[in-house]
Amino acid sequence: MAYLDDSAWRYFWHPVCTLPELAAAAADNRVLAVTLLGEPIAVAEIAGTVAAFPDRCIHRSTRLSIGCVEAGGLRCAYHGWLYDAGGRCVEIPAMPDYKIPPGFRLRKIETQVAYDLVWLRLDPEAGTEIPGCPAWGDEAFRCVAGEPYTWPTSAGRRLENFVDLSHFPFVHDGSLGDRRHTTVPIAETARVGGELRFRFEPEPDMDLPDVALMAPTDYRLWMPFTVNLEFFFPDGERGQLWMTASPVESGTCRSFWFTCRTAGRDGDDRPHLDFQDLVLGEDLPVIAAQDPPEIPGPAGEQSVPADAVSLAYRRWLRELSGAAQKGAAEVSRSLAAGKRPRQRRSGAAGDA
Ligand code: FES
Ligand SMILES: [Fe+2]
After folding, report:
1. Cys staple from 251: which of 56, 67, 223, 293, with CB 3.0 to 4.6 Å?
2. Number of independent structural domains in the chain
3. Residues 166, 89 share a domain
4. Tens digit of pLDDT for each residue in 129-174?
5. Ligand 1 nearest-atom number relative to CA 92
6. Are 189 and 196 in contact (CB under 8 A)?
7. Distance of CA 322 to CAs 38, 160, 293, 352, Å?
């Protein structure tokens, strides 16, 4: 059994596409093919609602995503069976008078739209909620959506990289870090509801670009794969960087993200997006080179107290993974527990 059981993440909401991606498909009656936790899924806008189904026709199992959307529903490409927005088969062209049995239906997957993203939840039993995105809808901020990106790593590794405090001077020397300042404060993490929270105080006298998001930062990590960073700049302005890593399949995740700012809200977005592209381009080589792409157990990697955030995150992932094997109620309990993980200021830190 792997250290983390990916089937645990079926209890959580994950985004699978952006609204503009769905709108582009709807404009030419296309069905979107996405993958979540290894499951191929067809997503379509049918009669004004967003619908998602396992990407497999119940007749002869061809992928629904190669079919098309019509006014009345989603039509399979093979024999033309038509499914309505609820997944019910409403037309079988080979037999127009056939009384279609009620069991001829697709399994409908729960969908929600939030932050201009389409979110799916494969299993509703744990009653989880869509993670927060504090700047969204806050008029003090301008939020700009970055281009989603797919990386050859697990969602856990992607998220862990986002909350890693000791890689800045090496991976991001000159953009987010400074090779002259390599030590990091050991963050004290706290569990609040389903979030892991901590604050980071970077070295104040680094020579970084104006668009660099580097200032005292409040981190909020919604378990398992969403994070928001809020930056407090000396002039009173604030910035936020939000990212969620959607677990596509083993060793692959797709990140959706926003960069948000209070300063220069009417200004050019491009430098802010370009800066994030620079940072992502710095991270990708090291993340893609991690072997294995999944987070291993404590025996698989050595850790030090500077990895306190990573260790607290792994510990909670592991708890959720174990809870999921006992059932949805245990997952809810682990999310709500709100207990503080142990803090270490010295000594070994290999316990994850
Ligand atoms: S396989 Fe879909 S209609 Fe036959
Ligand atoms: Fe990084």
Report:
1. 293
2. 2
3. no
4. 999 999 999 999 999 999 999 999 999 999 999 999 999 999 999 8
5. 3
6. yes
7. 20, 19, 20, 13
